[in-house]
Specification:
This protein folds into two domains: 58 residues; 115 residues, Helix Hairpins (Orthogonal Bundle). The chain starts with 14 loop residues before the first helix and ends in a 13-residue tail after the last helix. The chain is built from seven helices and no strands.
Length: 204
């Protein structure tokens, strides 16, 4: 069974890891007895054992696929997958390679080539755009839960307001910092964030 590279799985697994585990389990469980002393092996028995093994392996593969599918995951598992998606989509360890850098404020003062940035040690999890994307995913989940529960969950509404205002501050900061760069445009368009999300007071 093959999985698309961009698919997300539960339990922090990647499609490559799941595929490798399935392949490795097949090699560990394939019948070995018939590989020795071929002259004493009954071809019919050998074929039956291989067929049974293939059927059991297919059932195990289906079970693993269901276990790791986000469709069967808990809300915590789906949220963790959304966080990973936000990091990979908006993290600067990926976007720095594709986005046009914003113009420097003092280009007339700078002489010679611009200083090179220090390479990142790992995935970007702390930049403003990643935090905004993660907050947006959590806000969507909490808002849907509050719609289902009703209006009596005062703690939930308070948490929602806190997340919305925190996102609002990060958006205002990023807008001032990026000055309409590709990073800002892609973030707001991808997440569907309009001016109301970062201008003025938002309340529920």
């Amino acid at each position: 069974m093959h999985f698309p590279k961009d698919v997300l799985l539960d339990h922090f697994l990647s499609p490559e890891e799941l595929q490798e585990s399935i392949k490795h389990s097949y090699m560990l469980t394939v019948p070995k007895n018939w590989s020795k002393h071929r002259e004493f092996i009954d071809p019919a028995v050998e074929a039956a054992e291989l067929k049974e093994h293939a059927e059991l392996h297919a059932r195990a593969t289906t079970a693993l696929t269901r276990i790791t599918s986000l469709a069967n995951a808990s809300q915590k598992g789906r949220t963790a997958a959304n966080v990973r998606r936000c990091i990979e989509t908006f993290g600067r360890h990926n976007t720095d390679k594709t986005y046009t850098p914003k113009p420097a404020l003092n280009m007339d003062v700078i002489k010679g080539p611009l200083p090179q940035k220090t390479p990142r040690a790992g995935p970007d999890t702390g930049s403003s755009e990643v935090q905004i994307a993660v907050l947006t995913a959590k806000i969507k989940v909490l808002a849907d839960q509050l719609d289902a529960k009703g209006t009596k969950d005062h703690v939930g509404h308070r948490d929602l307001r806190l997340m919305v205002h925190r996102r609002q501050k990060l958006l205002n900061y990023l807008k001032r910092k990026e000055r309409g760069s590709d990073r800002w445009k892609v973030l707001t368009e991808t997440l569907g964030l309009g001016e109301a999300t970062y201008k003025g007071e938002i309340s529920f």
